[in-house]
Design brief:
This protein is of the alpha+beta class and 369 residues long. The protein contains 7 helices and 19 strands. Helices cover 32% and strands 25% of the residues.
Length: 369
């Protein structure tokens, strides 16, 4: 295993305008984006069924309740469904699998995005079920690989990661450019939030009007576009784990999977290196959500297990508790973020992630005071 405690790969920000910070505007934003993501899931999932045609009726059924506290019962369901999927997959030709792969991947991504937008919404359970449905098919047909990288086992399991309800808040310094003329906001005459004519162009495949890769805008034609301030030359200084991030999709996307002594088995390591070691969490019920809640001042975050929309209980074995204990023993944890941005987790200080200089030898770590 890699030294230094738990590692994560995360998204710090989303592309596009900064989401509203709160109030009715944020509620409308989350509602709109969440419903849009749910529609995206539905469209892609239905496309998978269309591709399967008559064989869709023989696909293993997600016929179990989504939440199950009994680990033995959950594991039995996973084993049964894994056997069913192995049998079903053997009847599907490679051309059909190739056609399904991008669709079910998009369905899973859209379902997870929907939950990130709707985690405090009446449609939360719709998003929860969408994740299970998409991940169930994705795992059944294509697996959920646990890979060996840099001496550690990494996973991007949609079930395991999406059920950790926390995100990232980043502190940075940046300039802001006008979306219409690309000049610095303080140097241009456009009023942010007002519409202005703008010529449709493509930069790196994205439309300058809607930022989409596929759209109906005609290149070279002028359209009315709302002016907004776009962050450029951003320099990140710190990041923090928070219960509800300003950017709803600023979440963990990969994390280390602790396999214990099993991870030292040569056969297990070989399977991970060959891409045939898989996580089974997608094949059965979950234990509910691990919600990150802020405790009293100075007490740091508290992890609770939400087993249903109406019941919550403290979970003594939550990933947050395990992470805190491991960090307490090691003094520092290391979190790897995109673009080789390294931060250290400070135990007992509200999960503050502090920025440190990256040297050629790795991370320049300052001992915990």
């Amino acid at each position: 295993m890699a030294d230094g405690g738990p590692h994560f790969k995360t998204v710090l920000m989303q592309w596009g305008p900064i989401p509203p910070s709160g109030g009715p505007n944020r509620e409308r934003y989350l509602d709109h984006k969440g419903r849009e993501s749910l529609r995206g899931f539905s469209d892609e999932y239905e496309a998978v069924l269309v591709i399967l045609g008559d064989r869709a009726a023989d696909m293993p059924a997600l016929d179990f309740k989504l939440v199950e506290e009994d680990e033995g019962a959950a594991r039995a369901i996973q084993r049964q469904k894994r056997s069913e999927w192995i049998q079903f997959r053997s009847t599907i030709d490679q051309a059909t699998l190739d056609a399904i792969a991008p669709r079910i991947k998009k369905a899973t991504t859209s379902a997870v995005a929907a939950l990130n937008y709707l985690e405090d919404h009446e449609l939360k359970e719709d998003a929860h079920r969408a994740i299970h449905r998409a991940a169930f098919v994705k795992r059944g047909l294509f697996g959920c690989p646990i890979v060996l990288r840099d001496g550690a086992y990494w996973e991007d399991c949609a079930i395991n990661i999406s059920h950790l309800r926390m995100g990232l808040s980043v502190g940075l310094v940046s300039d802001f450019a006008c979306s219409i003329c690309a000049r610095l906001v303080e140097d241009c005459d456009h009023q942010m939030g007002e519409p202005y004519p703008k010529v449709a162009e493509r930069d790196s495949g994205e439309c300058s009007i809607c930022e989409g890769t596929e759209c109906e805008h005609i290149m070279g034609q002028s359209y009315l576009a709302v002016a907004y301030a776009s962050a450029i030359n951003a320099v990140a200084h710190e990041a923090s784990f928070v219960a509800r991030p300003r950017y709803p999709q600023a979440r963990i996307v990969e994390m280390i999977r602790d396999l214990g002594e099993t991870g030292n088995d040569p056969c297990v390591r070989a399977a991970a290196e060959q891409g045939i070691l898989n996580c089974d969490a997608d094949l059965g019920p979950c234990k509910g959500f691990n919600e990150m809640k802020t405790g009293r001042s100075g007490s740091g975050p508290i992890a609770t297990r939400q087993t249903s929309p109406s019941s919550r209980s403290r979970c003594s074995r939550s990933p947050f508790d395990r992470l805190d204990r491991r960090l307490a023993r090691s003094g520092w944890g290391v979190v790897r973020l995109p673009a080789t941005f390294f931060v250290g987790v400070v135990p007992g200080q509200g999960w503050r992630l502090r920025h440190h200089a990256v040297t050629r030898s790795g991370l320049d770590v300052v001992p915990r005071r």
